[in-house]
Design a protein that fits this description.
Layout: E1 13-18, E2 24-29, E3 33-40, E4 45-52, H1 53-62, H2 64-71
Antiparallel strand pairs: 1-2, 3-4
Helix pairs in contact: 1-2
Length: about 80
């Protein structure tokens, strides 16, 4: 499975690692993803999602059902 957040769609970013002498080499900045079991009250069950830490923080504010609807995800599949 690729490293993409299932709710926000965040993925890796290309960047430069800059040394002390200012030599630049390419590096990949990965997303901080976590597997989380989240209680889905509308479905009355747990849902296991691959989420970025930013999405986990937003999830506490918005709620799982509203966030999934906004992302266009059907939680019955998970």
């Amino acid at each position: 499975m690729s490293r993409i957040c299932q709710l926000t769609g965040k993925r890796a970013n290309n960047g430069f690692a800059v040394s002390h002498s200012h030599r630049r080499s390419k590096k990949l900045q990965e997303v901080n993803l976590q597997w989380k079991r989240i209680w889905w009250p509308e479905g009355k069950r747990f849902v296991k999602l691959h989420l970025s830490t930013k999405a986990i923080k937003t999830l506490q504010f918005k709620g799982v059902d509203a966030f999934a609807r906004e992302a266009g995800i059907n939680l019955n599949q998970f």
